[in-house]
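Table S5 (text form). Sequence records supplied for joint modeling of the two-component complex.
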Amino acid sequence: MSLLVVGSVAFDAIETPFGKTDKIVGGAASYISLAASYFTKSTNLVAVVGEDFPQEFVQHLNKHGVDTTGLQVKQGEKSFFWSGKYHTDMNSRDTLVTELNVLANFDPIIPEAYQNCEYLMLGNLTPKIQQTVLERLHKRPKLVVLDTMNFWMEIALDDLKETLKMVDVLTINDEEARLLSGEYSLVKAAAKIQAMGPKYLIIKKGENGALLFHGTEVFFAPALPLEEVFDPTGAGDTFAGGFIGYIAKTGDISFEGMKNAIIYGSAMASFCVEKFGTERIIDLSETELNARVHAFKNLVNFSL
Amino acid sequence: MSLLVVGSVAFDAIETPFGKTDKIVGGAASYISLAASYFTKSTNLVAVVGEDFPQEFVQHLNKHGVDTTGLQVKQGEKSFFWSGKYHTDMNSRDTLVTELNVLANFDPIIPEAYQNCEYLMLGNLTPKIQQTVLERLHKRPKLVVLDTMNFWMEIALDDLKETLKMVDVLTINDEEARLLSGEYSLVKAAAKIQAMGPKYLIIKKGENGALLFHGTEVFFAPALPLEEVFDPTGAGDTFAGGFIGYIAKTGDISFEGMKNAIIYGSAMASFCVEKFGTERIIDLSETELNARVHAFKNLVNFSL
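The corresponding structure-token record, covering 608 residues in total, follows.
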């Protein structure tokens, strides 16, 4: 059951109340494909980096079973770079630097061997590029999941709305759901957004968990209360990667199946925030992962 | 299994983005005893009002099985009055008016028939008064639950800390937990607060649900996603009333028992916010309540 992941593979420099990093590997597709790799061994990556990108990380992905044939390396160019600083509450951050570099002219070329993928995860990118990916696939995947952000709602809303018509699942955070729908109530927002295209909407609320909406059905998964949230960067992408990876593993795209996928996505995200960047999710054991999923079950289990 | 509720019975004037009220009945103990009355028919109330307080509401309480022998009516005096205005997000509010009136000299007299209560719910009041109630009981109840707020942490922290040593369960919101403990992480905050006395800590997070901590155990109950939160006033008290009422009904003060009580508390609170003041919880049917609890089960149920 092959999974195609398209998104940024990049550098981040992060500052949190707990410390700061130099340039480390980041990017939506890095987190997504790493997280998915714990569930499916046929993940294919389409992304672009510059010649400055460390081959070592690409080898890490390969070791995890991620196919990087579709990772374009642009000689003489630099990788996308983002730098940000989190506030004390870790729920808000300031962007310090954004250098698009290779991402400015990203042409998402799909290798022939990646055609006929069953699952497609479109990480946060220009809506136009996300749409191009869909147009270039000869056959529509069984399930298309799209992540986006407030930035595109502000500067490319029409493109985004076009793209939304083509996807099955949208993942955004609560603020973005309010911005996109113009509704404060998330229940009302969910109804409006579903009418824009995606039949399933996942609203991510960070330390306050995640909601899955489908028609009048709703499911809530909490975030695991943690001693320390060290660095929230990539948590949403890791969540999405765990979610789509688990679906690619089970092949179950029903509402019930998605609930379980959200629990696995939440478990993966709960690891991600424990260290800087991808550090915590680069080498998880099955025992660790199972223990975390077990903790989630205990967290919400009651006997009524 | 008798329940003693001590707290304010008062007037509120509320403004939300959806409308505003004149003086309506409010006060922690009004919400608590009403909510508890859906689970236990032996609720005893200790509170104080002025001669301006409507007899009609007292009759409502009586009809719900709440004994109001302990409700002092001060002739020639006025009831406690609070007025506030909620911001658009409904999570923050400004206090416009606070008139202590009869509450300024509240002496919590416990009628003899109220002695030997098994459960005690101390609604938000001066910590000294809460402590006085405990000292006046001939026998310590099986379970003592205390609600308080940031105000007392700021102006009467030493008194509050003394009182905390005497209680089993503390209910506060996330901001208050951070303020009381000096820890941002709720997991760390919970450990510090438990060391202050209460072996059980409930952290209320409004539309983001509630957490129950006990030692290293933790349980999370979501809030039901609602189309409209009309007026959050009293939601925390209604939650506490449903919680202690359900415990008084079952007699189960184990961690497992408290989990179920929290679900019932959350269900009661989800009704409370649908209308102004106590309006929505004054006349709930058993069918409505059961349907709401069922919705909570569906909301978090997954098959893993």
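Note: The mean pLDDT of chain A is 96.
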